[in-house]
Structure formats: C-alpha cells, structure tokens
Amino acid sequence: MLPAYLPNPVAALFGGGTPIDLRRNFSDGKRVFGDGKTFRGLCMGILAGIGIGLVQIWISGTYGLEYLPRHTYLSIMLLAIGALLGDLCKSFFKRRFGKERGTKWPVADQYDLVAGALILLLVVDPSWLFANMTLPAFILILVLTPVLHRAVNIIGYYMGVKEVPW
Ligand code: CTP
Ligand code: MG
User: Fold this and answer.
1) 164 located within any domain
2) Domains: count for the chain
3) The domain containing residue 147 runs over which residues?
C-alpha cells in the first residue's frame, strides 16, 4: 500500500500554488475542490507514490521476497493515482456539504485514499487486485489506515506543514 500511502504526505509537504479548480466555483456557489488541492501536490504526490513503488519492485526483484505482493508498473501507478483521485473526490463532496477546506470529515478523510486506490485497481487491473488482496490484508489496511493517517498528520502539524493535526 506504500504507493497509495505516500502521495498524501508528499502533497502536504510539496503542494501549493495553482489550485486544480483554478479557484472556480461549482454551481452551488462553493469552490469545486478548494485551495487544498493543487496541481503541484497532485503531481509530486503521484510521482512519489510511483517512486516508492519502483523501489519496492526493485527490492522484491533483488531479494526475491515471494511472500509480498508482486507489484507491477501498472499496479503502482494505479495505487498512486487512485489515492489522490480519491482525495480529490472526497474534497469535491466535502465542498458540496459546505465543509470548508481543512475541516474534519471523519471516515472520508481517512479512507478516501484507500477507496480511490482500490477502486481504480478494481476497474483497470482487477486481476492484480484479486491475485494480491487477501481478506486479512484488507482488514489490516482498514485498521492501519486511520492509525497511520492520524500519526502522520500529528507529525505534519508539529512540523508546521499542516495547519490542523487531522
Ligand atoms: N495538497 C495539495 N494538493 C493535493 C492534495 C493535498 O497541494 N492534491 C496539500 C495542500 O496543501 C493541503 C495539504 O496537502 O492543504 C493536506 O491535504 P488534505 O488534508 O487532503 O487537504 P485539506 O487542506 O484538509 O483540504 P480538504 O478539506 O479539501 O480535505
Ligand atoms: Mg484535510
């Protein structure tokens, strides 16, 4: 899941600049995505996710870690892109519900990346997903994701990268 987990913190570290919605409003008069979704965050995040995936492919090729899921170039791209598309979709609906950028939206804020990554895999490369996603792995992802999310956001808050610790 590293190619899906890394894009968000990297976007928070290196994001900024032009927002993806070009500061435009949706038909309800509220921002389409908001200032928290930028082109730079999206690109840097996806590149970082693919980068860590390439390292994983290299490591498993070199050390033959048969018990780990065997990533492909496609699977790492789908995990990284899907994670940030999920994050973007979340922000779209968050704005529609009238929640300002950076406000808390429990469950959605934590699982947006997992949903985005797994749904994109399911649509584009289901054979990889079904060959590698076991029920215990899925349960572990559901348990680990909110814990990691919270821990990384607290670190980001004290580093001054995030304005709020969630
Ligand atoms: N970020 C970015 N581009 C993205 C995603 C994230 O630049 N595509 C950066 C922004 O600086 C953002 C930070 O990462 O503020 C944290 O991301 P997130 O918590 O997802 O955004 P929020 O600011 O909380 O906005 P939202 O309410 O829409 O979730
Ligand atoms: Mg947020």
Assistant:
1) no
2) 1
3) 2-159
**106 within a domain of the structure (yes/no):** yes
Give the three-state DSSP class for 106.
coil
Answer whether 87's CB lies under 8 Å from 9's CB. no
CA distances from 152 to 21, 115, 156, 157, 158 (A): 26, 19, 6, 9, 10
Any residues with CB less than 8 A from the CB of 115 and at least 6 apart, and which?
A: 86
pLDDT in tens, 100-134: 999 999 999 999 999 999 999 999 999 999 999 99
Ligand 1 center from residue 70 Cα (angstroms): 30
The ligand placed nearest to the CA atom of residue 156 is 1
166 assigned to some structural domain: no
Residue of 37, 81, 85, 91 to mutate, ligand 1, most atoms within 8 A of C-beta: 37
pLDDT tens for residues 5-14? 999 999 999 9
